[in-house]
Amino acid sequence: MIHVSIIGATGYTGVELVRLLGLREDVVLDHLTSRTYAGQKIQHLFPHLLGHIDHTCEELDLEQVTTDSDVIFVALPHGHALPIAKKAKEKGKKVIDLGADFRLKDAAVYEEWYKVAHTEPELLEEAVYGLPEWDRDAIKDATVIANPGCFVTSILLGLMPLMKKGWVVPNSIVCDSKSGTSGAGRAGNVANLFTEVESSFKAYGVAHHRHTPEIEQLLTQMAGTDTMIQFTPHLVPMSRGILSTIYATVKEKTTAAEIQSLFEEAYADEPFVQVLPAGMWPMTKSVKGTNNCQLGVTYDERTGRVIIVSVIDNLMKGAAGQAVQNMNLMFGLAETTGLQMIGLFP
Amino acid sequence: MIHVSIIGATGYTGVELVRLLGLREDVVLDHLTSRTYAGQKIQHLFPHLLGHIDHTCEELDLEQVTTDSDVIFVALPHGHALPIAKKAKEKGKKVIDLGADFRLKDAAVYEEWYKVAHTEPELLEEAVYGLPEWDRDAIKDATVIANPGCFVTSILLGLMPLMKKGWVVPNSIVCDSKSGTSGAGRAGNVANLFTEVESSFKAYGVAHHRHTPEIEQLLTQMAGTDTMIQFTPHLVPMSRGILSTIYATVKEKTTAAEIQSLFEEAYADEPFVQVLPAGMWPMTKSVKGTNNCQLGVTYDERTGRVIIVSVIDNLMKGAAGQAVQNMNLMFGLAETTGLQMIGLFP
Amino acid sequence: MIHVSIIGATGYTGVELVRLLGLREDVVLDHLTSRTYAGQKIQHLFPHLLGHIDHTCEELDLEQVTTDSDVIFVALPHGHALPIAKKAKEKGKKVIDLGADFRLKDAAVYEEWYKVAHTEPELLEEAVYGLPEWDRDAIKDATVIANPGCFVTSILLGLMPLMKKGWVVPNSIVCDSKSGTSGAGRAGNVANLFTEVESSFKAYGVAHHRHTPEIEQLLTQMAGTDTMIQFTPHLVPMSRGILSTIYATVKEKTTAAEIQSLFEEAYADEPFVQVLPAGMWPMTKSVKGTNNCQLGVTYDERTGRVIIVSVIDNLMKGAAGQAVQNMNLMFGLAETTGLQMIGLFP
Amino acid sequence: MIHVSIIGATGYTGVELVRLLGLREDVVLDHLTSRTYAGQKIQHLFPHLLGHIDHTCEELDLEQVTTDSDVIFVALPHGHALPIAKKAKEKGKKVIDLGADFRLKDAAVYEEWYKVAHTEPELLEEAVYGLPEWDRDAIKDATVIANPGCFVTSILLGLMPLMKKGWVVPNSIVCDSKSGTSGAGRAGNVANLFTEVESSFKAYGVAHHRHTPEIEQLLTQMAGTDTMIQFTPHLVPMSRGILSTIYATVKEKTTAAEIQSLFEEAYADEPFVQVLPAGMWPMTKSVKGTNNCQLGVTYDERTGRVIIVSVIDNLMKGAAGQAVQNMNLMFGLAETTGLQMIGLFP
């Protein structure tokens, strides 16, 4: 049995972890923490849990949590995972951070984009970036996982086969991403009210979104050469899902068929990445509630660009699902344990 | 292994059965039939099945289907289940009809409301109404199951404890029901376009909906006395979910606490019915993707009415989920097999 | 020129008043007040006003407002209109209160349901209930208007022809109402986030909603006999619109045709009420953005009930539109001035 | 009085023209044609017109229409406007084609992308492209107007100031556009059902959408040099609205402030184009129901790209609203006649 605690269980990412872990027979949920709702039954806050999860939300007791649990999922805003990971490391326990604290290898870049000091540079160095399709072996041995950002995951999986080949013209990449509103969290913000979001569409964080350096860091690793991107996130009137439309100019002429084959081969053995048949384009609804990433690709002979459309569920492959996939790897389980599910359609 | 075929696999109910049965290790999917899409891979029609279900849709070959399968799910409009059930019966196989052909015990009433002749009166007599919370023993021994209507299920579970007690004033019941649009099926109807439905709400079938006689038949059985209801369905701009608000005048004064206890006791052992704590009212989102029914109840001292709010997922407890629950019972499995899931929220 | 101020201009009702009055050539907008956003340009808060409305939001200066303006619209929570109406009265100015402070004629009832003391009983007595279809002559001479509640308007217009005839069995009325979420206001409440509301449906305030006594007060006046109702509000995943489904048992048998005629005649000369042809049922989308109320009616011979389905736009005929209609009447203008518009469809 | 007929009045674009023209005191609606609904009252098909528009839909009688009307709006699929324009020309009447028949100046390009022959090359030469912000003088004298495509309008208004200056690197432009579903028309297509579209997002027509040559034709005219673009449309779960995110590399370094000024000056006198203050980004909801285009712009110093976000209502500035703007110009009216309206929010 794997003993698990979830720090920040009443955010959308946290409660999605409860959905994924709460019924597993090989997992024990020890502690569900919530500063706002401590003392309340989580099934009364989230009635979809009624009859399944009887836990009461607790204040975080770091000593207790790291004593009881083998792995601690941190589903909190950036900055909060640092002391938790430090304590867990002391106790020999594992941490999966769903926030940004261990994603950027350069602490100075972290501090520039997130405006807080990074207090654990040694842990940062040790932390492993939790994208299994990129380096699952490193994940198996990790004690601290930096779970990738949601936009980031959709873009990295969309570009990885091209980057590894070195086919992309440096700095030609444009990533136009669209997200459902659960990515904005569960705070009572006027801008995220139903009335404001429904039947509307907008861009935000143009030219300045914090996921930019994370994407560039990984693409640079994949290509082996400095890579800069243009990234624009948008808000879609839907709860779940991210779709990224990615444009990349290639160095030499190619064909749509060659690109199709490249992607099909690259992901042939990946359980959670599906390349659609040529001519089909993915929609976010097809992956709702699942850990899947679906990709459509083509090459535009007129313009010399490869175009990739990538969809994930931002709370699953973009957060909680990928975190569980990482946990499975870290504990020597089959990677798909508890994640084999068909999406909810319609 | 239970061998299963789904007749009408490309409607919303049919493809939901595929979701529920396609990954079960104790079930083999033999045939998925579709008149419209025969010859096409179902995972290309429904990309949420990609990587999971490799079947090609077939024309219905009744001889073959009833030879190969132990149980046949019929997810077709009314009238179509009659010949299928007849053939299955001859071959000694079981049928679960998700349509209306075996729901009304009086063939004349069926013909009045559905405008077609009932050609199988003997099978009709033999068929068992598939509401496990009402009579699961009968279901265990059945060969033909009439799977209840979606609105009907939400209302029957909402009223059953009261009806059994005989507390309700005859003919005082008003059932005001609201459904997501997946209940309208997957035909290309202008009235069901996104543009027409989005951000709007309407009533339909006022005073004349076909579920009326089915509800009255069952309530009459439960109460042991003739019962007539007022039933109005409405269309909600959401894909899944039914909420029924039910008003019933009681013969003698009671209290909210007494009604709360009545319901809690009635459903204490039911795996798929949850009575919310007093003062909480259910929302459809809490049961999305699950086989659950959640109930909120109260008594209004001013008016002498009990008010019950009942929610289900119309494609699950209102159709495919309940059908699988019935299959589990018919084959001696644990009733919850393959149906233990936490809803998708948000 | 009519000089107008709007107190609480940055709520949904307030900003709807700005939409209706901001481009009128016979109206001058003096002051737009907002406690939260004082000092900010309203067109930057609400970019749909860009290029049209150049006002800066102000703190309320009651002396100034009542000096400058002929009529003051109060779009604030209950309790706040009392001192404003008092001051306006002193200055000989008119007030249209879109809140609840002057709706209930019995101050004790007001205090019971709203939990605050009513400090202006004389003004309360003088105030006129602003439902033009009920008593437009009284409105013409009023100085303080109690603008009706949104649910209330949809129900009163649905029942008025029946009540005036005295045909309804006392206490048989059930009002099952469904509202878009703009009715919940523009506060940053978690329960009203897009993620929580989207693709879901719920009931709230069952048996205890504050609009109940207001509805009963008016129905009692209309029928000339004490009338008690059952009222249940629900939340629809849409921004605008209310649909009320109203059930009323009639004392003597009637026919659908007779009911249809009763309604058509009752509203033949009303500019903002449309009775749909027999067999058609209204949807909220048809009145979006307009001051219209559309009604569908029938009589169910099986049950002896009249069923009325009534739709309005909650921010228009349910609030700002009706307020402007009242202003037109109070200032001797054509009642439809500035309100003649075709709804936005789709 | 201007006599007007609408050919194809029961599509979304046609019925939007009815909304805009039906209450104008300087316009007479002569004929509303519809092949599908001929003989039916348009207010029964579209109840938002109840009480306003009493017309019965007619089969198209081309002789009659061109005799009676001064201007004919054609809201039909491509190909159908050719004979109508020919006949109107003979009768000395004006035509505004909301389809594609007169948009592409090169008949061969039209035939390549639309797969039909162009039978009226002389009219094609004479036709004027109906984007007032580009060349309103030509529109004033035109007899045949090619009303621009919806995506096209959002992109041209977004790029025009840059193109006229000649600042853009040829072939660097990426246009990532997102549209509500009313753009897909009112046919009963399964892919456009509420259930399929709700809470989902997808790309379509990647690298091959028919608006591509139209955009390139106009950008080339504006810049005076051959221009090729990358254009990808997407479908948003909303009824109305288009947002285009446009990326263009500029030849020489610039600043966000310079770009902001360029746009503010370019559109200072345009009644329907609003440049948002620096740092604000538009959302589609702000222009819902209006003829406005709102723009947000910046320059990314890291990447050397200008980024423009442009929003319109696809049925208004993207179709019917712009058509009416063109009609106003053609008949010597104030350009904003009947189009001065504040958007519907929320």
From TrEMBL, chains A, B, C, D:
Listed EC numbers: 1.2.1.38
A GO cellular component annotation in the UniProt record: cytoplasm
Localization per Swiss-Prot or TrEMBL: Cytoplasm
Keyword Disulfide bond: no
InterPro entries the record matches: AGPR, AGPR_AS, AGPR_dimerisation_dom, AGPR_type-1, NAD(P)-bd_dom_sf, Semialdehyde_DH_NAD-bd
Catalytic reaction list: N-acetyl-L-glutamate 5-semialdehyde + phosphate + NADP(+) = N-acetyl-L-glutamyl 5-phosphate + NADPH + H(+)
Keywords annotated in UniProt: Amino-acid biosynthesis, Arginine biosynthesis, Cytoplasm, NADP, Oxidoreductase
Catalytic residue positions: C150
Pathway assigned to this chain's UniProt record: Amino-acid biosynthesis; L-arginine biosynthesis; N(2)-acetyl-L-ornithine from L-glutamate: step 3/4
Keyword Ubl conjugation listed: no
Annotated GO biological process: L-arginine biosynthetic process
Functional note: Catalyzes the NADPH-dependent reduction of N-acetyl-5-glutamyl phosphate to yield N-acetyl-L-glutamate 5-semialdehyde.
Family to which the UniProt record says this protein belongs: Belongs to the NAGSA dehydrogenase family. Type 1 subfamily.
HAMAP family documented for this protein: ArgC_type1 (MF_00150)
Protein name: N-acetyl-gamma-glutamyl-phosphate reductase
Primary gene name: argC
